[in-house]
Design goal:
About 65% of the residues lie in helices and about 5% in strands. It is mainly alpha-helical and about 300 residues long. The strands form two sheets. It has a two-stranded parallel sheet with strand order 1-2. Strands 3-4 form a two-stranded antiparallel sheet. Strand 3 and strand 4 form a beta hairpin. The longest helix has 24 residues, at about 275-300.
């Protein structure tokens, strides 16, 4: 089991794309119920199987495009369900913390990636050409996630070509996809700016300080523990991480932090879904229309 805890402050400049199923489901429900009144075109979500189909078709189209340009490309299978437990603000499950700490290390070495091996074997000039053929160049497409925070991509290259084939409206798909993918980050940014959260986190910090950790937030706690663990044996490191994670979770529940998060986050989430209702609905429309094209791509290539 691995632990995912995102940073304690602002939305990062480069965002990790995370598909948030629950957010999408709620967004679909809001759009579906209010589409007639708002004029937003609606469609049901394609679901997990549909998304896997779209992903497989995109990979197949990219493969064909790269092959036509004289390069190898290794199709990646759709992502499987992760064993990560997501604690975006603070670990608040004491039992989980006692069992997992910061997450168990991998027991086996990861398999050799044939794509990485192929790329590493190319001359430098060919590596640059391979990369440009795949992702294109320039930032012709962009979407503003929040003031001063923008994601951009090229409308050239094999990835753009595959997505244009599937979705038709590449620009519309990119904007809808990236906004919905990052809705959780936008919500969390709002939560962390809320004075109620700031006050509750200060209470949490006082609690963990009483347990021997001088840390303003869970991210700082991990830094404290990592510094203490420098040069220690793996078994000692593991025990120290479990102890710290249990303190983190215990303090989350014994102070107002967990209660505060459960109180304030739903409001910010509902507001974000309402604000981006059109993008949530647009994504469903584009993906539904792409399903027959995806099936054809997989059957014909």
């Amino acid at each position: 089991m691995k632990l995912t805890l995102r940073g304690q402050r602002r939305l990062p400049t480069v965002l990790v794309v995370v598909v948030v199923g629950s957010v999408l489901a709620v967004g679909v429900l809001v759009a579906y119920r209010t589409g007639e009144a708002t004029g937003v075109q609606t469609a049901p979500a394609v679901g997990a199987q549909g998304k896997a189909l779209l992903r497989s078709a995109e990979e197949r189209l990219v493969h064909e495009c790269m092959s036509a340009a004289g390069f190898q490309y290794f199709e990646r299978p759709p992502a499987t369900k992760s064993d990560q437990r997501d604690f975006p603000y603070v670990v608040d499950d004491v039992a989980w913390a006692a069992a997992n700490g910061y997450g168990r290390p991998e027991q086996t070495a990861p398999p050799v990636d044939p794509a990485a091996r192929y790329f590493a074997g190319l001359p430098k000039e060919q590596q640059n050409a391979w990369r440009k053929t795949l992702v294109g160049s320039g930032k012709q497409i962009s979407v503003e996630l929040a003031p001063g925070r923008r994601l951009s991509a090229s409308d050239k290259g094999c990835i753009a070509s595959a997505r244009r084939t599937l979705y038709g409206d590449l620009v519309g798909w990119f904007k809808a996809r990236r906004l919905t993918d990052n809705l959780d980050f936008l919500v969390q940014d709002k939560v962390r700016d809320d004075q109620r959260y700031v006050t509750a986190m200060a209470d949490w910090a006082g609690c963990v300080k009483g347990r021997g950790y001088d840390a303003a937030d869970p991210g700082a706690l991990r830094e404290v523990v990592a510094k203490r663990n420098e040069g220690r044996a793996a078994s000692v490191v593991r025990a120290a991480e479990v102890e710290a994670t249990v303190a983190e979770a215990t303090c989350a529940n014994s102070t107002s932090l967990t209660r505060t998060l459960r109180s304030i986050e739903p409001g910010y989430r509902a507001a974000a879904i309402a604000e981006h209702q059109r993008e949530l609905a647009d994504l469903n429309v584009l993906e539904q229309a792409a399903v027959p094209r995806a099936k054809a791509a997989l059957e014909n290539h």
